[in-house]
Design brief:
- By secondary structure, the chain is an alpha/beta fold.
- 46% of the residues lie in helices and 14% in strands.
- The chain is built from 9 helices and 5 strands, in the order H-H-E-H-E-H-E-H-H-H-H-H-E-E.
- A 5-stranded mixed sheet has the order 2-1-3-4-5.
- Strand 1, helix 3 and strand 2 form a beta-alpha-beta unit.
- The longest helix is centred in the C-terminal third of the chain and has 21 residues.
Length: 213
């Protein structure tokens, strides 16, 4: 059996098992999705969003990219965020990084890697913002892991700075933005304690006026 055939066989077994255990699962899933959570995570294959938090398909809306970066000029990420907030009306946006992230590690280096260098620039900017504290970390792995944490913190801020999130708050829509980090070594998630629930919790320079009407 080839690798692709094995995947298709795995799919059939998964579908049959779920159908036996929950006969209404797929018909219900086909009718609608109604998740409370948007997960913004890393593309790393070792960080499976639904599995980590024990949620089934339909319960977690997911956007993933290299090093869980949120950039206001990334139309993919902004479109996902807008759909999640304005259409699905999720109640929580969770930016989740992971320790030992290859993207973060690469951003600490100086080698040219190609197109991705432009993406990693955003993580280099995070390093620059926190350089004073990061330069005091002598151990290489500890430096990578601390930058992984700080990258999550800054991406949480980037989510909150969007008009998408600020307009939701202005409408009175309940919405929290959170920063978590996942450990590959034990499968545990750590809350970084940077949750934001209203505009007054972000720097005033990023406050946006609500459009009239």
């Amino acid at each position: 059996m080839s690798g692709l055939e094995e995947l298709l066989a795995n799919n059939r077994r998964w579908s049959e098992r779920l159908s036996r255990e929950q006969p209404d699962f797929f018909p219900r899933l086909a009718r609608q999705q109604n998740p409370d959570y948007l997960w913004i995570g890393c593309s790393d294959s070792r960080v499976p969003a639904n599995d980590i938090v024990g949620l089934l398909p339909g319960e977690l809306f997911v956007h993933r990219n290299v090093a869980n970066v949120v950039v206001h000029s990334d139309m993919n990420a902004m479109s996902v965020l807008q759909f999640a907030v304005e259409v699905l009306r999720v109640r929580h946006v969770i930016v989740t990084g992971h320790y030992g992230c290859g993207g973060v590690r690469a951003a600490l280096g100086h080698a040219q890697l190609g197109l991705i260098d432009n993406w990693l620039r955003h993580i280099k900017d995070v390093y620059r913002l926190h350089e004073a504290s990061l330069r005091g970390i002598d151990d290489g792995e500890s430096l990578v892991d601390r930058l992984c944490e700080l990258n999550v913190v800054e991406q949480v801020r980037n989510v909150c700075h969007t008009t998408i999130v600020q307009n939701a708050w202005a409408r009175g829509q309940p919405l929290g933005v959170h920063g978590w980090i996942y450990a590959l070594t034990d499968g545990r998630v750590k809350d970084l304690g940077v949750s934001v629930h209203e505009r007054d919790e972000i720097a005033e320079v990023y406050h946006m006026e609500t459009p009239a009407g």
